Write the structure tokens for this entry.
Amino acid sequence: MLNCVCVDLNASEPQEFCSMEDRKARKPHHCCECGETIQPGELYEHAAGTWGGEFNTFATCIRCVTIRRDFMQCGFIFGELWETIHEANCDKEFCLCPNRK
């Protein structure tokens, strides 16, 4: 189980508690990042926490977890992985485009 030290659900709401662990799905879940269905038997990341007094849970498919761990090492907002990557790519902070010079 990991402690989400630098995870923010909303920058204006402080994180009070967060735990993350890899699980094997017993029922279908929807990935909070890409929206794909996590099928029973597949591994996924389960996160639960309280931000600004509100308890939330998140399921993230392993593909999105891998990408998030590689590209969002300094923090992230659940559900905004692809938007953040798109914005960074458009701003040229880093680029996933193979044609970038």
